[in-house]
Write a structure and sequence with these properties.
The complex is a heterodimer. Chain A has helices at residues 20-30, 43-62, 64-68, 77-102, 108-116, 134-151, 160-188, 192-211, 223-228, 236-254, 279-289, 293-306, 308-328; strands spanning 264-266, 271-273. By secondary structure, chain A is mainly alpha-helical. In chain A, strands 1-2 form a two-stranded antiparallel sheet. In chain A, helix 6 runs parallel beside helix 8. Chain B has one domain: Ferritin. Chain B contains 11 helices and no strands. Chain B has helices at residues 26-29, 37-58, 67-93, 99-104, 115-118, 124-145, 151-180, 183-196, 208-211, 224-237, 260-274. The chains are: A mainly alpha, B mainly alpha. Chains A and B meet through helix 3, helix 4, helix 7, helix 12 and helix 13 of A and helix 2, helix 3, helix 4, helix 7 and helix 8 of B. Chain B: One of its GO terms (cellular component) is cytosol. Chain B: This is Phenylacetate-CoA oxygenase subunit PaaI. Chain B: InterPro entries: Aromatic_CoA_ox/epox (IPR052703), Ferritin-like (IPR012347), Ferritin-like_SF (IPR009078), PaaA_PaaC (IPR007814), PaaC (IPR011882).
Chain lengths: 329, 280
């Protein structure tokens, strides 16, 4: 681990001079190469990555809950198997991402503690509840669909361990998105009650999914620096636009209506114009006033606290084994 | 189908499951053989055991003591659900019922699972005790069922035995960690094992059905010695005594269940039953 003990800060008078290692970092970024854990990096770059990767990991972990909610009630054994596979994939993604963040000098325990203490962020989308089976379809189709738009460019992120983790995650996300689409398709081809359930779920998840891309470009303070560092490749609004462009034809195949009366194709821009996003709601949920914020953190805290004795046992056992091995040697 | 994560691995590699691989294999779906009534009943025994325990393991995903265990218990549950689907598909062919007809549209008395599988998850030690007993029983069973005169059962057993072998390993590792870890974990492991032990004997009871399936079914009583020989050294290493005390009279193979199964089925079946005839 190469974490500097002190926060990196150049003395003011030296700031015009670029050190050799900083020069090398800048060269690597300019050449669109990868930064690896042992390479020198500016402290702000490290902090940005830790913040982004740990938020992403936390989102995978909290994001297990709305879907785990339906594992025991899945309406067919095939759907149950797919859902179990999907939710445990998400636990796996959380593990890869925590590992990637650990290479930057922040431990998984620190990140877990911050999450449980309510100090760390995760994607706001998971603060919405999943009251019906159709939510499994809408989450897969819209939430995982939006995640893919966000994440595919991250496979080229300048920080090596993050980019490589994202390659594997994106492969699995596309399976997740497809199974969500299939759930909705099956419902839309089903009984009137099933069709109603599907449309209701799309109505509830569409706008929050659009908010997943973050605030509009003119209100996104960290974006410019992240783009300069080749962590972020496209702006929030560009990605949101791309996502809407993907959704419209798929919604037509499904036969669902996207709940935006202002959505229409613009012949001039060759893109879809969309209605106004309710950013007040976004900020409310972000501030902890969403429908399920408290429930999500409570569940994570309970699992963590109720499992403490198990983790302690594993540590104690490993220590005893190590002592025994030393004694033998 | 899925790799099982080894406990303790720093970054457990988790099975990547494609949609296609959770669809039943072709030989079972198309032109598969149809079981006789007795073979179908036997397939129901095994299928219901796997289904009921898979249903319970699914609850742990997002609630496990650490992320590696969310993945591991999820994988194990997924393996067992796969076994259940193959077995129920085969069991239902005789009466024209699908795996879902059998899973969602039967009531408690029609279920043939043994009581062990329907015991509640309890704390992690209870789940591990149940896994420890179940995986060792299933490993001995599937090892022998590979030689069944019924080709479908033999094929299902050949696939399943490799998976329950990993499940055994997972349970053994945790039995050792919990029994030899801290005072607290040891106390819980002793309690878990003793709470689950009353349901061991039922697994090895020969019912009249077994007499009619010579060469097809595995005689449960024939597995007991191998089961004991496998678990006794583990318990010895864990410094645990084989529990003594209550022995449940069982009755699952005849449709007589404990109080738990009704709750398990109510949760599992609620959505499917709210929409009769719907497809998902």
């Amino acid at each position: 681990m190469t974490t500097p003990a002190e926060p990196y800060a150049l003395p003011a008078e030296a700031s015009v001079e670029v050190s050799a290692e900083e020069h090398q970092f800048n060269e690597l970024i300019a050449a669109d190469s990868r930064i690896e854990p042992r390479d020198w990096m500016p402290e702000a770059y490290r902090k940005t990555l830790v913040r982004q990767i740990s938020q992403h990991a936390n989102s995978e972990i909290i994001g297990m809950q709305p879907e785990a909610n339906w594992i025991t009630r899945a309406p067919s054994l095939k759907r149950k198997a797919i859902l179990m596979a999907k939710v445990q994939d998400e636990a796996g993604h959380g593990l890869y991402l925590y590992s990637a963040a650990q290479t930057l000098g922040t431990s998984r325990d620190e990140m877990t503690d911050a999450l449980i203490a309510g100090k760390a962020r995760y994607s706001s989308i998971f603060n919405y509840p999943s009251p019906t089976w159709a939510d499994m379809g809408a989450i897969g189709w819209l939430v995982d669909g939006a995640a893919i738009c966000n994440q595919v460019p991250l496979c080229r992120a300048s920080y090596g361990p993050y980019g490589r983790a994202m390659v594997r995650i994106c492969k699995e996300e596309s399976f997740h998105q497809r199974q969500g689409f299939e759930i909705l398709l099956e419902l839309m081809n089903g009984t009137p009650a099933q069709r109603e359930m599907a449309q209701d779920a799309v109505n509830r998840w569409y706008w929050p999914a659009l908010q997943m891309f973050g605030p509009p470009d003119n209100d996104s303070p960290n974006s410019a620096q992240s783009m300069a560092w080749n962590i972020k490749r496209f702006s929030n609004d560009e990605l949101r636009q791309r996502f809407v462009g993907m959704c419209v034809p798929q919604a037509e195949v499904l036969g669902v209506t996207l709940p935006d009366p202002d959505l229409r194709y613009n012949e001039e821009t060759k893109q879809y114009d969309m209605g106004e996003i309710d950013w007040t709601e976004f900020h409310e949920v972000l501030a902890g006033r969403g429908p399920a914020n408290a429930r999500r953190l409570q569940r994570r805290r309970e699992a963590h606290e109720e499992g403490a004795w198990v983790r302690e046992a594993a540590v104690a056992y490993a220590r005893k084994q190590a002592v025994a091995a030393t004694a033998v040697a | 189908m899925t790799e099982t994560s080894r406990p303790g691995a720093a970054t457990a590699d988790h099975g990547h499951v494609e949609v296609d691989s959770v669809v039943l294999s072709a030989e079972l779906v198309e032109g598969g053989s149809v079981a006789s009534h007795d073979v179908a009943e036997y397939a129901l025994w095994l299928g219901d055991d796997a289904l009921v325990i898979a249903q319970q393991l699914g609850w742990w995903i997002s609630r496990a003591p650490e992320l590696e265990e969310d993945v591991a218990l999820g994988n194990i549950g997924l393996d067992l659900l796969g076994h259940a689907r193959s077995l129920l598909h085969y069991a239902g062919a005789e009466s024209g019922r699908s795996e879902d007809d059998l899973a969602y549209w039967r009531d408690e008395p029609q279920f043939r699972s043994a009581h062990l599988f329907e015991q509640p998850n309890g704390d992690f030690a209870h789940t591990i005790a149940r896994q420890f007993i179940a995986a060792h029983y299933l490993f001995e069973l599937y090892t022998r069922l590979q030689a069944s005169g019924d080709a479908t059962l033999a094929a299902i057993a050949a696939k399943s035995v490799k998976e329950v072998d990993y499940h055994r390993d997972h349970a053994v590792q945790w039995i050792l960690r919990l029994a030899l870890g801290t005072d607290e974990s040891r106390r819980r492991m002793v309690t878990g094992l003793s709470d689950l032990w009353p349901y061991v004997d039922e697994l090895f009871v020969d019912e009249p059905l077994i007499d009619r399936l010579e060469g097809v079914a595995v005689r449960p009583s024939s597995l007991r010695q191998a089961f004991d020989e496998a678990i006794v050294p583990v318990l010895a290493e864990a410094e645990l005594d084989v529990p003594r005390g209550f022995i449940s009279s069982g009755g699952g193979r005849g449709g007589r269940h404990s109080e738990n199964l009704g709750f398990i089925l109510a949760e599992m079946q609620v959505l499917a039953r709210a929409h009769p005839g719907a497809s998902w």
